[in-house]
Amino acid sequence: MMVDGFKDMLLNLLFIIAPLFLYHLLQSGYRPKRFWYYALLLMLPACSAVLCMSFPLYIAPGYFFSMAGVPFILAFLYGGVPGGAATCVVSLAYRFWLGREGFWLMLGTVGLTLMLLLGILPLFRNMSSNLKIAVVGICAIAYRSILAFVNFALEPDLFYSMLDDGSFMQLSVVMTAVSLLSAYVIELIHRQSNSREAEMNTEKLKMISELAASVSHEVRNPLTVTQGFIQLLRQPGIDPEKQERYLQLALEELRRAQSIITDFLSFAKPQMEHIELIEIEGEMQYVIGVMYPYALMQNVLIQYEPSAGSYWIKGDRQKLRQCLINLMKNSVEAMPDGGTLFLRVQAVESYVQLRIEDTGIGMDDEQLKRLGKPYYSTKDKGTGLGTMVVFRIIEAMGGSVSVQSEKGRGTVFTILLPLDKSDPAISLKSPASRA
Predict the structure, then answer these.
(1) Residue 289: is its pLDDT beyond 80?
(2) What Gene Ontology molecular function terms does this protein carry (predicted)?
(3) Residue of 266, 253, 344 whose CA lies nearest to 304
(4) d(CA 373, CA 379)
(5) Of 146, 167, 202, which residue constitutes the final position of a domain?
(6) 67 has a pLDDT exceeding 70
(7) Contact call for residues 59 and 1 (beta carbons, < 8 A)
(8) Which long-range contacts (CB under 8 A, 24 or more apart) does 293-297 make?
């Protein structure tokens, strides 16, 4: 007797495979620690079994074969006792509701198969992927054999009839093939999930590596400046007033280093923690005072064109100083044979423009495109992360950074930051009105 209903067989295969992908989607997405979430995961194979029993395969007039044994086996081996028990209880309850005739057959088959699965389960978890697939196939054959034995005990005439027309062998092959395919899909999903998790861990390690390099790069700046001040303090006959000023600046830079370390320990996206009104002219004077000893050591002259008025912005003062010092230090280091560092501040429409220009070695178009990318630097021992941090901080303050450079002639960094107009005491005149 040929097994009718090829469409029903494909439908059963869909009922078994579809919940596997749904389970994968639920596991790979947001995982709330709620009872309903775990209950849903446990009930997926049970729902699969119920659907398989609702659309069974036709054998003979009045007799059908259900593929519910496949989700039952998969639930026990891959979901453990909770998943298998939930599938078992729901399947038996639904079978009892459909009719008591098939209930005793299913109860006997499930009971004997359950003992086999409980014995295999402790070993199954440590098996290789291919061996797990093979074990699932063996369990499917065992389930079908147990079903045939119970069927023979309850209805021997039907059993002999199935042997004569080949239905028993066909159903056994179909169930085993579906079980093997389902196990293969599960292992493939697990393999992809593990691969994705490994990639995520690699990305996390890469981020930590970049973060560590950033901290090292950023902290080096204030430490270098502090070293310059300490060297100046060693000069004989230094003026007491200058000595006190150098000490204050050195301490300020050490505090800035501490602030940078704290900031980068939780670095993900620059957040403006201490928003305040910042007067640009005062910040430029401060940064120039900090960078002057370092520039002097490198034989670099700083020329600053003061602004014609007061320009105020809203932002984080320490982060703005960090950006300016970083860019100015890079400009100084781009002039190994000495040169001039030009600084200028002016208003451009509703923005304040900070221009940092050097007469250093410059960059070509390829270097310019890669500027600001992690682990790219024009310096031998640079990481490129300092400039990247500058770009991100300025963007977080609502501004932008543009770079123009020519090989052998120098580089110009132009920072645009939005002016603050909330305070009526702030004078924000355009350059034309100041002329």
Answers:
(1) yes
(2) ATP binding
(3) 344
(4) 14
(5) 202
(6) yes
(7) yes
(8) 293/225, 293/228, 293/229, 293/231, 293/232, 293/246, 294/224, 294/225, 294/228, 294/329, 294/332, 295/328, 295/332, 295/341, 296/228, 297/228, 297/231
Q: Which of 146, 175, 202 is the last residue of a domain?
A: 202
- The pLDDT assigned to 172 comes to 77
Instruction: Give the C-alpha separation, 312 to 282, whole Å.
Output: 10
Q: pLDDT per residue over 108-139, tens digit each?
A: 888 888 888 888 888 888 888 899 999 999 99
CATH of the domain at 308: 3.30.565.10
Q: Which amino acid is residue 389, in one-letter code?
A: V
Q: How far apart are CA 391 and CA 344, in angstroms?
A: 19
Q: Residue 149 is encoded by which pair of tokens?
A: 């034995």
CATH of the domain at 64: 1.10.1760
Mean predicted confidence (pLDDT) in 190-216: 74
Pairing of strands 339-348, 57-60: unpaired
Give the residue among 324, 321, 336, 326 at the shortest CA–CA distance from 380: 336
* Same domain membership, residue 171 and residue 306: no
- List strand residue ranges (DSSP E) for 255-360, in order: 275-279, 300-305, 312-316, 339-348, 351-358
Is 20 within 8 Å of 46 (Cβ atoms)? no
pLDDT at 356 over 90: yes
- Strand order from edge to edge, sheet including 410-418: 300-305, 339-348, 351-358, 410-418, 400-406
Cα distances from 153 to residues 142, 147, 325, 334, in angstroms, run 16, 10, 88, 91
233: pLDDT confidence band, cut at 50, 70 and 90?
confident
Contact between residue 18 and residue 51 where contact means Cβ atoms under 8 Å apart: no
DSSP output for 276-294: EEEEHHHHHHHHHHHHHHH
CA distances from 211 to 120, 159, 260, 268, 269 (A): 47, 70, 12, 9, 12
Rounded average pLDDT over 87-98: 86
* Structural domain containing residue 413: 269-434
Q: Is residue 198 part of a domain?
A: yes
**284/190 same-domain check:** no
Confidence band, pLDDT 50/70/90 cuts, at residue 97: confident
Task: Output the six-digit token pair for 9.
Answer: 């067989």
Q: How many domains does the chain contain in total?
A: 2
Spatial CA neighbour of 73 closest among 160, 175, 5, 159 = 175
Strand partners, 279: 312
227 located within any domain: no
Strands (E), 113-265: none
Note the residue count of the chain. Answer: 435
Contact (CB, 8 A) for 155 and 163: no
